[in-house]
Amino acid sequence: MKKNVLITGTSTGVGLESAILFAKNGYKVYATMRNLEKSNALKESIKKDDLDIDILELDVTKQETITKAVETIISKDGKLDVLLNNAGAGFGKTIEQATEKEIEWVTNVNYLGVVYTTKTVLPYMRKQKSGHIITLSSVGGLVGQPFNELYCGAKFAVEGFIESLATYVSPSFNINFSIIEPGGISTEFMTSAIKNTAVKGEFATGEYAPIFQKYMEGNQQRANETSESTYQTPLQVAEVIAEISNNEQPPLRVRTSAWAEDFTKLKTALDPDGLKQVQQITKTFL
Q: Where in the sequence is the domain holding 73, given as residue range(s)?
């Protein structure tokens, strides 16, 4: 039986490209998304290339949809080989400006969604004593950035969550964990980030205005660079994910571009793939 993979957030961007790439690489793909009405792009690719992809509804903020999707996969295949935690959303406002509802939303989509989905698949992978959980993080999971404290905070939480699991679940149950850390991605994710960035109101006239203006100008400049671009395509990131999935001894952490590597080097230089830290913690406590 071919390997299978559950991918969250496959309507656009990295999730969409990953679903297509995994299928082309011989996986049975379960592509999930919150809103099935946004599945047209994926359906067109399935039809065009005759891809082995099933589309399922899954909202990472709703446990009942996660449970239903995972149980559907297990009932069909009796196993789950790879989970790709891809779903997420950009956000850029100061903590002062963000509403309580926005704070909860950023945390739920970018952190708790990873927790809930991982929690749901772990019992099955533990029973089969195999599996690979790959989670899309960001350089923002390693380095805090202006006007991104809520997003970065959620991604820092993701990194700590996955790293902690790797210290005892991996050696005990043969389940691998990998965190993917891109820089900017030219995708709907960027559209989401811009949509959820304060560009009016307080930032237009308040004390943060000149700082925010400088921040936005810098983002625009990097987006327009033609040499070593900050922004990758979704396919470029998906290719890194696909490569990691085929690695028998995958890294805990991997940056997806030279820019991302350079941006985070003060945090990663001593332990680029994160495995030394995990091994040290495992040795210390277990």
A: 4-285
Spot the catalytic one: 45, 137, 138, 257: 137
pLDDT, one tens digit per residue, over 1-47 is 899 999 999 999 999 999 999 999 999 999 999 999 999 999 999 99
Known catalytic residue at 137: yes
Residues 222-251: pLDDT tens digits?
666 644 567 899 999 999 999 999 999 999
Mean pLDDT value of segment 138-157: 96
Which one, of 123, 137, 126, lies nearest residue 70 by Cα? 123
Write the burial class of residue 225 (CB in 10 Å: 0-12 exposed, 13-18 middle, 19+ buried).
exposed
Pick the catalytic residue from 3, 28, 93, 155. Answer: 155
CA distance 184 to 256: 10
Nearest one of 79, 108, 93, 130 to 206, comparing CA atoms:
93
pLDDT tens digits for 46-71?
A: 999 999 999 999 999 999 999 999 99
How many structural domains is the chain composed of? 1
The question of whether 168 is a catalytic residue gets the answer no
The active-site residue, picked from 27, 30, 151, 231, is: 151
> Which residues are within 8 A (CB) of 90 and not within 5 positions of it... i.e. 6 or more apart?
151, 189, 190, 192, 193, 194, 196, 197
Q: What is this structure's pTM?
A: 0.94
Name the pLDDT band for 184 (thresholds 50, 70, 90).
Answer: confident
- φ/ψ of residue 255, rounded to 5: -85, 155
Examine the residue annotation and report whether 11 is marked as an active-site residue of this protein: yes
Active site (annotated) includes residue 116: no
pLDDT of residue 198 exceeding 70, the answer is no
Measured between alpha carbons, how far is 194 from 166 in angstroms, rounded to an integer? 33
Q: Which of 11, 39, 45, 245 is catalytic?
A: 11
CATH value at residue 230? 3.40.50.720
